Amino acid sequence: QRAHRIAVIPGDGIGKEVVPAGLDVLRAAADAFDLRLEFEEFDFACAAYWQAHGAMLPQDWQTILQGFDAIYFGAVGWPEVVPDHVSLWGSLIQFRRVFDQYVNLRPCRLMPGVRGPLAGRGPGDIDFLVVRENTEGEYSSVGGRIFEGTERETVLQETVMTRIGVDRVLRYAFEQARRRPERHLTSATKSNGISISMPYWDERVRAIAAEYPDVTWDQYHIDALAAHFVLNPDRFDVVVASNLFGDILSDLGPACTGTLGIAPSANINPERRHPSLFEPVHGSAPDIAGRGVANPIGQIWCGSMMLEHLGHPAAAAHVLAAIESVLAEASPRTLTPDLHGTGTTAGLGKAIAERVRATPPA
Ligand code: NAD
Ligand code: IPM
Ligand code: MN
């Protein structure tokens, strides 16, 4: 069997702590399923590459990374040293755009053994998938400042929605909905206030929905949707959203399931012309970095999504099952503080890697 070549970019802060835990679990899965995974690590981060070279990436990064089958990414950002918009537009956002990773898949699930903040909800009650548009929308570099330093100082930043860009992510979301038992799609909008781009998004949702008569759909204004995430999270199946709305919903959803620390994401180039990138939803968490207490599950779940993408659904399911069984059974000594435990990143990662090795593959 051909080896899968994986570029590993731990990044900054807790990225450097959770990625080793994620790699341990991937190695365990590779052993259990007889897969060949080859990892090559790159120091593209504020704390390394920037400090040495004054840029986030080498000029030929595209050529370097293009040859890999996937990118396993931790988190980038060290705002004390590099302004966030500089470091993120200099790395993660470049990857998403240049590698045309126009779908960002962000599953959200209340896991067994995890105490969420919402009363009366148990495992399985919250289980939805946010499909975030990942290359255009509100994240645009169209705009600028004029009359700087004067009373007329003016700042503009345009939202960009293209027919191709909107339709392709909507189709991907409808396809995902079609494959799930509930076959339901919710669109996040704000067409009452954002009067040009959002009505266009709505119009394309209606048009694409006609291609999927077997999928039911509805739409909510983003403000009301945020409230429903908290009050009625069981209502949702697939939620499709523009870049910014999807960003916000994909932190809010995991918060409703107990912690941002378990949430994974897959930045997908569906045509496979470029490598896809797998990273937790969370960032470099400077507030807890360096203490070895970050929850590694978001990073580990990303590994499961990467295995799925590489064509190994059984190994992917095995890793997810190991996460669930460890969460269901672990003592507070194994769980990290965000899960109300006293454990460490390494300890929780090791427990999951051991579970992957100990359970025979189905
Ligand atoms: P963040 O996600 O890093 O942290 C938000 C809060 O969640 C913090 O209190 C943090 O301690 C907690 N948290 C996050 N991950 C956790 C984990 N695995 N276990 C336990 N607790 C966890 O968001 P932020 O504070 O807004 O951003 C910090 C830096 O990360 C900034 O530089 C930002 O730009 C960057 N960032 C990078 C990415 C990325 O690379 N994908 C994503 C988001 C933010
Ligand atoms: C995410 C992050 C990024 C985003 C930031 C760091 C630019 O919050 O992946 O959710 O907004 O896309
Ligand atoms: Mn985010």
TrEMBL record:
Keyword list, A-Z: Manganese, Metal-binding, NAD, Oxidoreductase
Domain named Isopropylmalate dehydrogenase-like is located at 5-352
Give the molecular function GO annotations: D-malate dehydrogenase (decarboxylating) (NAD+) activity; magnesium ion binding; NAD binding
| Entry EC no(s) | 1.1.1.83
EC primary class = oxidoreductase
Q: State whether keyword Cell membrane applies.
A: no
Cofactor(s) of this protein = Mn(2+); Mg(2+)
Q: Which family does it belong to?
A: Belongs to the isocitrate and isopropylmalate dehydrogenases family.
Query: What is the protein's name according to its record?
Result: D-malate dehydrogenase (decarboxylating)
Q: Which organism is it from?
A: Virgisporangium aliadipatigenens
